[in-house]
Design brief:
Chains A, B: The record marks 140, 191 as: Important for catalysis. Chains A, B: Residues 6-347 form the Isopropylmalate dehydrogenase-like domain. Chains A, B: Mg(2+) binds at residues 224, 248, 252. Chains A, B: This is 3-isopropylmalate dehydrogenase. Chains A, B: One of its GO terms (molecular function) is 3-isopropylmalate dehydrogenase activity. The structure is a homodimer of 353-residue chains. Chain A is α/β, with parallel strands linked by helices. Chain A folds into two domains: 1-117 and 261-353, 3-Layer(aba) Sandwich (Isopropylmalate Dehydrogenase), CATH 3.40.718.10; 119-126 and 163-258, Rossmann fold (3-Layer(aba) Sandwich). Helices cover 41% and strands 23% of the residues of chain A. The first copy, chain A, is built from eleven helices and twelve strands. In chain A, the strands form two sheets. In chain A, strands 2-1-3-12-11-4-5-10-8-9 form a ten-stranded mixed sheet, sandwiched between helices. Chain A has a two-stranded antiparallel ribbon with strand order 6-7. In chain A, strand 8, helix 6 and strand 9 form a beta-alpha-beta unit. In chain A, helix 9 packs antiparallel against helix 10 (314-334). Chain A is globular and about 55 Å long. The mean pLDDT of chain A is 96. Chains A and B meet through helix 4, strand 6, strand 7, helix 5 and helix 6 of A and helix 4, strand 6, strand 7, helix 5 and helix 6 of B. Strand 7 of chain A pairs antiparallel with strand 7 (155-163) of chain B. The structure holds 3-isopropylmalic acid (IPM) (2 copies). One 3-isopropylmalic acid (IPM) sits between chains A (91, 95-96, 248) and B (193-194, 224). One 3-isopropylmalic acid sits between chains A (91, 95-96, 248) and B (193-194, 224).
Chain lengths: 353, 353
Amino acid sequence: MSPLIKLAVIPGDGIGPEVVAEAVKVLEAATAADDVSFDATWFSLGAARFLETGDVLTDEDLTAIASHDAILLGAVGGVPGDPRLVNANIERGLLLKLRFSLDHYVNLRPSVLFPGVPSPLAAPGNVDFVVVREGTEGPYVGNGGAIRQGTTHEVANEVSVNTAFGVERVVRYAFEKAQGRPRRHLTLVHKTNVLVFAGSLWQRIVSAVAAEYPDVTVDYLHVDAATIFLVSNPSRFDVIVTDNLFGDILTDLAAAISGGIGLAASGNINPEGRFPSMFEPVHGSAPDIAGKQVADPTAAILSVALLLAHLGLTDAAARVSAAVTADIVARAALGIPRSTSAVGDAIVTRLTD
Amino acid sequence: MSPLIKLAVIPGDGIGPEVVAEAVKVLEAATAADDVSFDATWFSLGAARFLETGDVLTDEDLTAIASHDAILLGAVGGVPGDPRLVNANIERGLLLKLRFSLDHYVNLRPSVLFPGVPSPLAAPGNVDFVVVREGTEGPYVGNGGAIRQGTTHEVANEVSVNTAFGVERVVRYAFEKAQGRPRRHLTLVHKTNVLVFAGSLWQRIVSAVAAEYPDVTVDYLHVDAATIFLVSNPSRFDVIVTDNLFGDILTDLAAAISGGIGLAASGNINPEGRFPSMFEPVHGSAPDIAGKQVADPTAAILSVALLLAHLGLTDAAARVSAAVTADIVARAALGIPRSTSAVGDAIVTRLTD
Ligand SMILES: CC(C)[C@H](C(=O)O)[C@@H](O)C(=O)O
Ligand SMILES: CC(C)[C@H](C(=O)O)[C@@H](O)C(=O)O
C-alpha cells in the first residue's frame, strides 16, 4: 500500500479557492506516478466563514488541522474596509494563529526572477535568493497594549520579543540552506544600530553559528540599506536571514522585483515536523478580482513545489518547478493572458505529457 | 543691520566634511544678495572625536548646539567593524540623541526623480513625493532590554512607544504639507493588521484629523504593500506619513528609486522652533570613499534648500533648488563624473551668474 499523506486544504477568501483548485490539480498530477497518495480535507476558514458563523479559528479547527501532515492555504481576508470585519482581524486570528500555534518558526520565501518575466527593474541581473524569515517572534508576538485609549493621553506600545532559542534555531536553518546552495552566502538583515538589544542578540548568534559553517560567507546589512540593494543590485543576495517584521517587508519588495506577488511562494515551516508545515502564496485574497478566473495561480502552484520538497518528495517538487518554469517562459512568448484554470491546465499538461 | 542666523555645522566623519564644505559654499552664495547673514559655529563630533576624546555628545555640546537657529550635519559614523567603535554606537549617541533632545518630531524626506537622472526602475514615471517620518517615537525610543544576556535563555525585547500627542502632531504636519501640494493626497503607511495597538492609534488619529482637511484625500497601505508600490508605481504617492522605523526603511528605498542616496536630502524638524531643526543628507559617512573628492555633495546641498525654506528664506531656497535641478540635468549631458568641489562650484556659479 502506498503511503497516504493527510493534507489540510484551506482555500480561504477571494481568489484563494480559485488558485488552490489549480494547486491541488498540479499536486495530484505531479505525484500520480509516485508511490504516494494524498488525502485532502478541506477547511472552510476566513472572512466568509467568520461572517457566516462568527468564528475565525476554533480550537476544534486547530486540533483538526494539526492532525494533518501538511497544509495548503490559498489566501484569507475579506474586502478591505468591510465594517463587519473591523474587529475580526482575520490575519491575526487565523493566519498568524496558525503560524504561531504550529510553531512555524521558518518562513521560507524564495525569490527567483524567471527567464522572460518582466521586472520593474531596468537591469535586475540574476535574481535568485531566498529569505529565511523568523515566524514566531519579533513584533508579531501580539505583545502590545494601550492605555487611555481614545483620549489625547493614549499611549500604545508594541513589544518585539526575541529569544536566543528562537533566533538560534532559525539562524541554523538559514546556515543549512546557505550551505546547500552554490554561492553559500548568508546576509543577516536587522537594524542593530537602533534596535540594540534585539540586534545584538541576532548578531551574536549569527557570529556564533557561523563558526560551525566555515564554508558559508556571512555579511550584515541594516534593513534600510537592504532595500536599496534589493533594487540596485539584487543579485548580491543568496540567503537572507531576518526577523519577522523585516522579513515581511523585504519579501514583498523581493516579490515585486522578481515579477510580482503573482509568482511568490512561501512555506511556513516547522522543520522538525512536530507540527504540519503550511504552504501559501505570498499574495492576499484580492477580493476585487475574485471569482473572475483572472488570478495567477502560479504562486500557489510554486507553494506546492515547496510542500512536496518539505515532505521529501524531491523528484515531484523538481517536476513542478520545472513545469512552472517552462510555463512561465512559454507565457512570455504567448503574450496574452490566460484564465486561472488555463494556467493550471497548462502546467498539468507539462507534468503528464 | 541684517539679521544674523546662528548656524551650527557638524561636518562629522568620512565624506561628511567634504559635502558640508560644498553645502556651506552654496548656502553663502544663495543668500549673498539677501538681507541676512550666517554665523557658523563648527562642531567636531562623530567617530573621529570619539576616538580622540572618548566623548560622543557631551551636555556642553548639546547646550551649545541648541543655542543655534539651525543645524547642518554632514554624516556621522566610523569605519564599519572598527573594534574601537563597537560599544560607541555613534548613531544612537549622537544622531538620534540630537533628534530626540531637540524634539525633531518631523523627519521630512522628499523624493524627486529629477529629469535625466537614472533610476533603477525601468519605467519610474513621475516620482515626486515626500515622506513625513515621525522622529521621536516608535521603536526608536531606546526602550529595549535583555535578560540572561549571552546565555541560551536570553530574551531581548524592543518596545515601540506611540502616543496620541506624538502621532497627532506629526499627522497634522503631514496634512498641512499635503494641503500645500497640487495633488493633496496623503497615504498612511503602517502595519495595522499586526501591530494592532500602535496601528489603531495611527489610524484613528489620521481619520480624526482628516475631517479637518476635507480637500486632502487619504488612503492607507501596509508597509509591505507600500514597498511594492514604491517599485511598481511610485507616482501614486504624494505625501506619506508613517512611523519612525517604517519611515527609515521607506525613505532609503525611495532614495534608491529616485536616483540614489547621493541626491536624497532630509530635515529633522521641530516645526514650532522651540529647538533648532537639523538638515542632513540621507546618506552615511561612506568612509571607503572619504577624502577622495568623489562624494556627491548634492544631497547636502539640497538639505541646505530645506534649511533655507525652514528659516523662511523661501526665495533663496527656491534658487538653490533651481540651481541644483539645472546642474543635475547638465551633469546627465556631461556624462563624466566631477569632483565633490566641482559640483559645489558649478552650483555656486549658477547661483551667482
Ligand atoms: C497578512 C499578514 C498578517 C502577513 C504578515 O504580515 O506576515 C502577510 O503580509 C504575509 O507576509 O504573509
Ligand atoms: C543612522 C541611523 C540611526 C539613521 C536612522 O535609522 O534613522 C539613518 O538610517 C537615517 O535614516 O537617518
